[in-house]
Amino acid sequence: MNQELTPEEKEALKHVASKLEFYEEQRRNLIPILQMVQETLAYLPPEAIKLVAEHLAIFECEVYGVATFYNQFRFHPPGKHPIKACLGTACHVRGGDIILENFERKLGIHAGETTPDREFSIEKVACVGCCALAPVAIIDETVHGHMAPSKVEGLLMRIEIEKEMEERAKKKDESGQ
Ligand code: FES
């Protein structure tokens, strides 16, 4: 599902368009260009892919073909709370894929996607270096070890509650109470 660009992203897309001028219209520049786009926008939205294809005079599907070959490129905006589910060997044998499925089901998105409100994104990752805690998931910067399907809902709920509390505090500040 494509998400509409935010006003900030529309601005960033203009920067991308002006930076493209510095790249020769040569196919060998495709990877450096995609890296520049991702640095600027944090992912590769269809609008940027179109610009790149036009700049290099190639088809958009060719740009997608190359970009999807590399793990470094994202096609969805990173969520405010990125979730990384480890599927390295130790986590995999201890049910890492079941943890991933639980996050996917609860949030209604697949790995590699972002929720429509851009709050959460899910990513599959290889070993994150703490196999003794397998299965592991990382939410924001926090490592959650010995994950179990029953913990998934609680972790997501905690984030929702924190968000609600922040919003309430903000409203209170704004109303000067
Ligand atoms: S395999 Fe998941 S932390 Fe090593």
General description of the model:
- The chain has 177 residues and is α+β, with helices and mostly antiparallel strands.
- The chain has 7 helices and 4 strands.
- It has 2 domains: 7-69, no CATH class; 81-174, Glutaredoxin, CATH 3.40.30.10.
- The protein has helices at residues 7-20, 30-41, 46-56, 60-69, 89-93, 96-107, 149-174; strands at 81-86, 120-125, 137-139, 142-144.
- It has a 4-stranded mixed β-sheet with strand order 2-1-3-4, with helices on one face.
- FE2/S2 (inorganic) cluster (FES) binds at residues 86, 88-91, 127-131, 134, 136.
- The site of FE2/S2 (inorganic) cluster has 12 residues, from helix 5.
What is this structure, in a nutshell?
The chain has 177 residues and is of the alpha+beta class.
Name the descriptors:
alpha+beta, Glutaredoxin, flat, about 180 residues, binds FE2/S2 (inorganic) cluster
Describe the SSE topology.
Blueprint: H1 7-20, H2 30-41, H3 46-56, H4 60-69, E1 81-86, H5 89-93, H6 96-107, E2 120-125, E3 137-139, E4 142-144, H7 149-174
Parallel strand pairs: 1-2
Antiparallel strand pairs: 1-3, 3-4
FE2/S2 (inorganic) cluster binds at residues 86, 88-91, 127-131, 134, 136.
CATH superfamily of the largest domain: Glutaredoxin
- The stretches of 5 or more residues where confidence is low (pLDDT under 50) are none
Count of domains:
2
CATH topology of the largest domain: Glutaredoxin
**What's the end-to-end separation, in Å?**
41 Å
Estimate percent helicity.
40-55%
Please state roughly what percent of the residues sit in beta strands, choosing from under 5%, 5-15%, 15-25%, 25-35%, 35-45% or over 45%. Answer: 5-15%
> What is the makeup of the main sheet?
4 strands, mixed
Shape: flat
Q: Enumerate the strands of the largest sheet in spatial order, edge to edge or round the barrel.
A: 2-1-3-4
Average pLDDT, rounded to a whole number, is 93
Tell me the name of the CATH class of the largest domain: Alpha Beta
CATH architectural category of the largest domain: 3-Layer(aba) Sandwich
Quickly count the helices: 7
Query: What's the gyration radius in Å?
Result: 19 Å
Question: Which hetero compounds are present in the coordinates?
Answer: FE2/S2 (inorganic) cluster
Helix and strand sequence: HHHHEHHEEEH
